[in-house]
C-alpha cells in the first residue's frame, strides 16, 4: 500500500510537470527575447557611434571586423532566444559582449579625437550626436527592461507556485526554505532593475521613469509579501513543534493567542499587497514573535 501511494504521488508530479512545460518554455523564450533586446540596444548604440564617427572622417580601430563579428553573433543570439535555449543563449551572449569590448577602445579614442576638435565636424555637433545616441540607447534599454521585469516576475511567481505544489504532493522539504530562496531570487531581479534605472535614469523621459518606478515598487511589495509569508510559516512551524509540550504545561491560551495573531496576519496579506493591511499584519507578526519568545522563556523556567 505504501509503495502504491509513493508511485501515485510520483505519477501525479510527472503529470503536473508535463502540464506546465509548454507554458514554461514559452515564458523562457519571452524572457530570452527581452534579454536579447537589451543586448541589441547596446550593440546598436556602439555600431551607430562607429558609423557617425566615420561620417566625421574619424577612423575606428578594428571597426569592420568587429562589427561584422558583432552582427553575426547577434544573429546567433536571437536564434538561441527564439528557440528558448538558455545555455546556447549564454554562450552567444558572451561572444557578443566580447565583440563589443573589442570595438569599445576604438570608439573611445574616436570620441576623444572629436571632443578635441580633430574631426571634420565641430566638437559641439559631436556632443549633441553622442547625447542623442545615448538617449536612444537608454530608452531602448528601459523599454526592454520593463518588459523583462514583468516576465521575470511572472516566471518567479510560477517557479514559487511549482515549488509549493511539489512540496504539498511529495513533501520534499519545509516551505520556509522555498520562501528564503524566493526572496533571494526576487532581490536579484530588483537589483538588476535598479541598476538600469540608476545608470540611464537621467536620459529618460518622465513617463518612462514613472513606469520604472512603478515596477520597482511592485517588486518591493512582492518581496515584502514573501517575507511576511515566510515569517508566518516559520512561526507556525515553531508553534507546531512546541504545541504538545506547551499544552501539557498549561500554556494552551498562549499558544492559541499566537496562533490567532498569525492567522489574522495571514488573512490581511492573503489577497495581495495593501499598504495599511501589510502594516497591521507586520505589527501582528511582531506581537506573535514577542509572545513566542516569552512562551519559550516561561516553558524553560517552569
What's the overall average pLDDT, rounded? 78
One letter per element, helices H and strands E, the order comes to HHHHHHHH
Q: What structural category arises from helix and sheet content?
A: mainly alpha
Main β-sheet, in a few words? none
Tally of DSSP helical segments: 8
**Spatial extent as radius of gyration:** 27 Å
Query: What percent of residues are in strands?
Result: under 5%
Number of domains: 2
Task: Give a count of the beta strands, DSSP E runs of length 2 or more.
Answer: 0
Terminal CA distance = 44 Å
The outline comes out as: elongated
Instruction: Report the helical percentage.
Output: over 70%
Stretches where pLDDT is under 50 for at least 5 consecutive residues are: 1-22, 169-175
Descriptive account of the structure:
By secondary structure, this protein is mainly alpha-helical. It has two domains: 128 residues, no CATH class; 130 residues, no CATH class. It is elongated and about 90 Å long. The chain starts with a helix and ends with a helix.
Quick rundown:
The protein has 302 residues and is an all-alpha fold.
Q: What attributes characterize this protein structure?
A:
elongated; disordered N terminus; 2 domains; single chain; mainly alpha; 302 residues
Topology:
Blueprint: H1 2-55, H2 63-83, H3 86-115, H4 123-170, H5 175-200, H6 206-248, H7 252-269, H8 275-301
Helix pairs in contact: 1-2, 1-3, 1-4, 2-3, 4-5, 4-6, 5-6, 6-7, 6-8, 7-8
Amino acid at each position: 500500500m505504501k509503495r502504491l501511494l509513493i508511485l501515485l504521488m510520483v505519477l501525479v508530479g510527472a503529470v503536473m510537470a508535463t502540464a506546465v512545460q509548454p507554458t514554461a518554455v514559452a515564458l523562457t523564450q519571452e524572457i530570452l527575447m527581452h534579454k536579447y533586446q537589451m543586448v541589441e540596444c547596446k550593440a546598436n548604440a556602439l555600431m551607430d557611434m562607429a558609423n557617425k564617427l566615420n561620417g566625421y572622417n574619424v577612423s575606428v580601430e578594428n571597426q569592420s571586423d568587429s562589427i561584422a563579428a558583432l552582427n553575426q553573433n547577434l544573429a546567433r543570439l536571437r536564434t538561441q532566444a527564439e528557440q528558448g535555449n538558455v545555455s546556447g543563449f549564454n554562450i552567444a551572449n558572451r561572444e557578443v559582449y566580447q565583440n563589443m569590448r573589442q570595438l569599445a577602445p576604438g570608439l573611445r579614442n574616436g570620441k576623444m579625437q572629436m571632443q578635441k576638435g580633430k574631426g571634420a565636424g565641430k566638437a559641439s555637433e559631436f556632443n549633441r550626436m553622442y547625447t542623442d545616441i545615448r538617449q536612444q540607447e537608454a530608452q531602448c534599454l528601459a523599454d526592454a527592461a520593463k518588459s523583462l521585469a514583468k516576465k521575470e516576475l511572472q516566471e518567479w511567481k510560477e517557479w514559487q507556485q511549482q515549488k509549493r505544489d511539489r512540496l504539498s504532493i511529495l513533501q520534499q522539504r519545509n516551505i520556509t526554505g522555498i520562501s528564503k530562496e524566493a526572496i533571494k531570487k526576487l532581490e536579484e531581479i530588483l537589483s538588476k532593475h535598479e541598476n538600469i534605472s540608476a545608470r540611464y535614469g537621467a536620459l529618460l523621459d518622465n513617463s518612462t521613469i514613472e513606469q520604472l518606478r512603478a515596477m520597482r515598487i511592485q517588486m518591493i511589495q512582492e518581496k515584502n509579501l514573501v517575507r511576511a509569508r515566510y515569517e508566518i510559516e516559520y512561526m507556525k512551524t515553531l508553534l507546531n513543534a512546541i504545541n504538545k509540550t506547551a499544552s501539557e504545561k498549561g500554556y494552551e491560551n498562549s499558544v492559541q493567542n499566537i496562533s490567532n495573531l498569525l492567522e489574522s496576519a495571514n488573512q490581511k496579506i492573503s489577497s495581495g499587497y495593501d499598504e495599511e493591511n501589510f502594516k497591521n499584519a507586520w505589527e501582528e507578526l511582531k506581537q506573535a514573535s514577542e509572545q513566542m519568545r516569552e512562551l519559550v522563556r516561561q516553558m524553560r523556567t517552569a
